[in-house]
Design a protein that fits this description.
Layout: H1 8-19, E1 25-32, H2 35-41, H3 44-59, E2 64-70, E3 73-79, H4 82-97, E4 108-114, H5 121-137, E5 143-144, H6 148-151, E6 158-163, H7 171-178, E7 182-187, H8 190-200, E8 204-207, H9 216-223, E9 233-238, H10 243-251, E10 257-259, H11 264-277
Parallel strand pairs: 4-5, 6-7, 6-8, 8-9, 9-10
Antiparallel strand pairs: 1-3, 1-4, 2-3
Helix pairs in contact: 2-3, 2-8, 7-11, 8-9
Length: about 280
């Protein structure tokens, strides 16, 4: 779609930077914010057009090599000192956020990695993804050049997205989760939840099955269209629970299915255990 090199070509380029010990080399990962929401709400053609146009904006960058990593993620290789690398990232962030070329306004999150910090291509990818996640936790449209633990030691243990049209009545559950060190965001319909999830990549999503605009099952299917969002732990908490729904949940790989009313402590402890284990399974 963009005509940019990717896959094995990008892998070789990253490894060459490491093997040759290129001085002042930086790898900048750029992720388009809210793209999953745009694909669902405006259509994939719109999302593809945005990705294509952003590739053109990035392609005008001076003294850099541009690659496509995966989905809405681009990679820039840049040679320069720390000040120049951060300045470049900020200019790219601003160019995307203020662009009049895009069919739908978007922003981008950027994660920077210095070659001096890593010893392998895998370490570059892991650190870049960590920093992208940190930038997105700030709401997107942000640049992060330090690791998550360094950048967010004063913040909560993680973010939980609660998706329920009656979220205002779940105060007890919200308080139990917050006392375990998590920030809780709420969404009242599936489209709003998808938009928030694609913007901030929460650690856990707790969703009612009967949600307006996108049901709990539909929301999970949309999330799984993204490799990154598909790994978010997904907890289903619903008034509805019968054999047919249990079978459908099992078909989606759902491991737990809570029926309301249930113990707020039990759900909050599950959230805490997921975070402690860094669980990457889909849980509901």
């Amino acid at each position: 779609m963009t005509g940019l090199p990717q896959g094995a070509i990008l892998e070789r380029a990253l490894q060459n930077l490491i093997d040759q010990h290129v001085s002042d080399a930086w790898v900048i990962f750029i992720r388009v914010d809210r793209i999953e929401y745009i694909n669902s709400y405006h259509g994939r053609d719109t999302g593809d057009e945005i990705i294509y146009r952003i590739s053109k904006i990035l392609g005008r960058t001076e003294a850099s090599l541009l690659y496509r990593y995966d989905g809405p993620i681009f990679v820039l290789l840049f040679i320069g000192n720390t000040e120049r690398a951060i300045d470049l990232a900020e200019r790219l962030r601003k160019a995307i956020a203020e662009s009049t070329e895009l069919v739908e306004p978007v922003s981008a999150s950027l994660g920077l990695v210095s070659i001096d910090e890593v010893e392998s291509g895998q370490e570059i990818r892991d650190l870049a993804m960590q920093r992208l996640r940190s930038a997105r936790r700030r709401g997107g449209n942000a640049v992060c050049a330090v690791s998550y633990n360094e950048a967010d030691t004063d913040q909560s243990s993680g973010i939980v997205l609660l998706v329920d049209p009656e979220a205002d009545s779940l105060g007890v559950l919200i308080r139990e989760i917050e006392t375990r060190g998590f920030a809780v965001l709420t969404a009242y319909n599936g489209i709003e939840a998808l938009q928030l999830a694609s913007q901030i990549a929460p650690d856990v999503i707790i969703s009612e099955l009967s949600v307006p605009k996108l049901s709990g099952f539909e929301l999970l299917r949309k999330l799984r269209q993204s490799e990154e969002l598909g790994r978010i732990a997904f907890v289903l908490l619903s008034h509805r629970r019968n054999d047919q729904l249990i079978r459908e949940a099992a078909g989606l790989g759902i491991l737990h299915y809570f029926q309301k009313p249930t113990s707020a402590v039990q759900v909050a402890e599950l959230v805490r255990n997921i975070a402690l284990a860094h669980d990457s399974w889909t849980v509901a």
